[in-house]
Amino acid sequence: MRRALTVTAVAGAAWLTKRAVRRRITRSPLWPLPALETPVSGYSPRRLLHALIVSRTKPAEGILHLVLESPDLPAWTPGAHVDVVLPSGLVRQYSLCGDPADAGRYTLAIRLIEDGRGGSREAHAQLVEGAELALRPPRNRFELVPAPSYAFVAGGIGITPILPMLRAATAAGADWTLLYGGRSRASMPFASELTAYGDRVTVVPQDEAGLPGLAPLAGIRPGTLVYCCGPEPLMRAVTEAAPPGTPVHLERFTPAAPTGEARPFTAELRRSGRTVEVAADESTLAAVRRELPNTPYSCEQGFCGTCRHRVLAGEVDHRDELLTDAEREDSMLLCVSRAKKEDRLVLDL
């Protein structure tokens, strides 16, 4: 009897210890390093949501259209995107293209990129109707600013964040136009829906009419805001075509080319008491992972926020497409950002 009680006590103690360690790791994924009062290092503090895929269609060549439903889905505004956690654990970002008034429902459109890094291929192969999908709450760095008139320009899958903007601008009584270009009419999602807006919309399939002409942008009246989402060459062309002083709002789905020369610098990892040298041709993340190989990451393009960490000292050259100005005051994304002018950054790692 005494031996049985001892075995039971040991087993119980082991179970309690395992549970305590699991909770400790949840609070600080870089455990046994100290936990932060507000967890930033190691993972996004935003909670995960879970939604059911209630519809899966293909509205155009290479485009997967998903409708998600859950009573727990937060409200959102035009221009917002969500982080989708794919079954493999990869995190990818997709714009919400439905109607914000549809409470409890999100709509996504995902373009298949055959020569990409695998996220879109996994989405097309594994995100099926009836499956549950994990995602993070919406973020918006492409907000629709109230204005009397807008000039919208979209290229290919770049139409997704623009769609809810058109609805909002129409509801607000604003004047607007949309120039929508793509490789071919068959590859351009939602083109049929846009016919309801009449001559406000100009659809330009490249195989029929060549590249979209941007000359009309030069004649937009003062007070008009320009919104563009699409490939980098299109966004550069729109920025150049808009009259001087016209606000041009851009939404990228690939990283912008760095504008400054990358220089080597030193990163001090304050909590672990280590120092790493970051070469000019490597990312801060790669250098940090030499010392802390369990440092989490996902997209490596400055979109998902998985590698966001607190900066204790030094000036950061922010090259991400995610963090707000307020968030950039004390944190950075290791995968794309680096030291700006000084030769040293101090990180809370």
How does the SSE layout of this entry go?
Elements: H1 2-27, E1 49-60, E2 63-69, E3 81-85, E4 91-95, E5 105-111, H2 119-126, E6 132-135, E7 149-155, H3 159-171, E8 175-182, H4 191-194, E9 201-205, H5 206-209, E10 224-229, H6 232-241, E11 248-251, E12 265-269, E13 274-278, H7 284-291, E14 308-313, E15 316-317, H8 325-328, E16 331-333, E17 338-339, E18 344-347
Parallel strand pairs: 7-8, 7-10, 8-9, 10-11, 12-18
Antiparallel strand pairs: 1-2, 1-6, 2-5, 3-4, 3-6, 12-13, 14-16, 14-18, 15-17
Structural summary, described in words:
The chain has 349 residues and is of the alpha/beta class. The protein has 8 helices and 18 strands. The strands form 4 sheets. Strands 4-3-6-1-2-5 form a 6-stranded antiparallel β-sheet, with helices on one face. It has a 5-stranded parallel β-sheet with strand order 9-8-7-10-11, sandwiched between helices. The longest helix has 26 residues, at 2-27. The chain is globular and about 65 Å long. The chain starts with a helix and ends with a strand. Residues 17-45 have low confidence and may be disordered.
